[in-house]
Amino acid sequence: MSRRGKTPGASERARGQAATSAERLQRLLALVPYVVSRKAVGLADTAAAFGLSERELVDDLNLLWCVELRNPDPYCPIDLSYEGGEIVVSQAETIGRPLRLAVDEASALLVALRMLADVPGLEDRSALSRLIVKLETAAGEAAGPSAQVAVQVDKPAGDHAIAQIRDALDRQRRVHLQYYVPGRDEATQRDVDPMRLLVVEGRTYLEGWCRRAEGVRLFRLDRVLGIDVLEIPATVPEDAQPVDVNQGLFRPSAEDVHVTIEVSADGRWVAEYYPCESVEELGDGWLRIRLRTPDTRWVRRLALRLGEDGRVIAPEDLRALIRDDATAALSAYASA
Amino acid sequence: MSRRKTERLLSLVVCLLSTRRYLTAEQIRQAVAGYPEQPEAFKRMFERDKEELRELGIPLETGSLSPLDGEDIGYRVQQQAYELPELRLEADEAAVLGIAARVWRHAELAGAAAGALLKLRAAGIDTDHPDAGADVRQGIEPLVHTTEPAFGPLWEAVRDGRPVTFAYRAAGRSEPQTRELEPWGVVNRHGRWYVAGRDRGRDAVRVFRLSRIEGDVRFSGPSGRVIVPDGTDVREVVRTWDSVPPRENTAVLRVRSGAGYGLRRYATGPADADTSPVPSAPVPAALAPSAPAGGWDTISVPYSDVGWFADHVASFGADVVVADPPDLRDAVIRKLKGVLA
Fold first, then answer.
1. Residue A149 and residue B155: Cβ atoms within 8 Å?
2. Peptide bond before A145: cis, by omega within 30 degrees of 0?
3. Which residue, A46, A101, B156, B238, shows the most beta carbons closer than 10 Å to its own?
4. Complex-level ipTM
């Protein structure tokens, strides 16, 4: 078994190119067993399963039907029909079963499944462990390298929060949260109609309709100080859009303040920790970071944390506030 | 995309699968439509086609046709090596598979996950089963991102056992340094990717954060050169490297009422009361305001590193004042003076 088996990545497709011959071959080798394993399938369903238009699918089927080997005598190894919108493969020869999983393919699934085992509150644990064993067996040697990749999921402090959120999701009930907002150092109270439980970047979030903000919000579970499931039905507005996690969890808006901050080598972590618009090397390990935020309170707190390892350059009024913050904090020590 | 090329590759696969004996290149040329007559042109095209099949993970075997004549090379694909073994999933297993296949959809292995799912569907598995379990019903949605450009090459290096070199800027360093690594594995911890392995320059186990790798990751040796020591658990290697030292010190802090929640959460109790920890309570006792608005609470909070904890305390500004110990108090004052410097 080749260790090199590679799937054309999403990035390649994202460039807007048509499928390559190799990609199409891969699809054709899956299409035959897809039909064979189901005896007969509809054109429309199959097209949907493969992300094709019916016309593209018919073109694929014609191509398969046309395959001819010429030696010693010409013969057509594949026989199929799609009359009346139903595909039947009557002869599939040697390609009636799908190709084995490549290393990348087996790894993608196995790493994801082992990560799921870490997800707090997951219920179908027995299904999960059965599936992992089955896939490892089916993948054989290709499963090996997957042990060298791992995604660890943080355990939120209180398991009780998970249990209550799952209960609320299951019964579609509103929850009352006491929620810590570190950027403002506030413990806020809010009613939330739960939508789903997200595990992103190793952290667990409740996505829900926040009745206070009147919008979809994400709540990090390790910041939930307290939770009550209310005996009130959750009413998520129909036009509520789930957070697009594709671009990360940060969403810029037109009202954002543009902040420029410079950090020393010891403050470079800021560029890794916060979503930045631009990062510029200033020499000697210093960076100039530009970012935007709807609320600058956390930047003030960040500036105090950085001390001489950071300096806020713009906006001017934020600089003044930070100096005031530091002066006020120092005066507490002077008077104590 | 060329239809003729797809047809040729498909015929080649079927041809190689349907033979038990090794077929010579010439036999293949005669059987598969679409190859040129001219020998050099055929040879070039056939070489490229073989490479494409291998890239797709088709186990193309090369063997000699007769034991006496090693020159005469032939090709075949064994059915058993080609086929995905029989795989039957229960409805609950298929539902979990559906969740797993979505984990990478915004990340490097998205194509691989989609490819895997395609093959499993081709094996007769349906992931969108109507009576899926509670996890699917409740919309549990785990996601992984790989925004670090180093992830792709490092995964390939780990998969193929290849050593790599890259420029790395360690925390607090003003200049990056070149490192040569035998990578053992990549691990995501607290949402960040790390690579662990043997640093050749230092001849020691090292862990690197992918976001601190600058520029390209280059392969510095052929596949199969990296030997991961038996019993290595890369998760554990990264965990050990990243673990926080125990919080053996205790700070006594004065906290303005209604503020300092980021510290109150970890408080072991009021400084003047019995300091038995209350970590299991849903809401730590220190969160309940004990003083009227405008007043101050005194709490004690455990910490490990003075420098890190001083930074954290300083971020609360005038809402938190260190009463004890003196070295922490001095570190916070230095930090705040640094803001004004």
1. yes
2. no
3. A101
4. 0.82
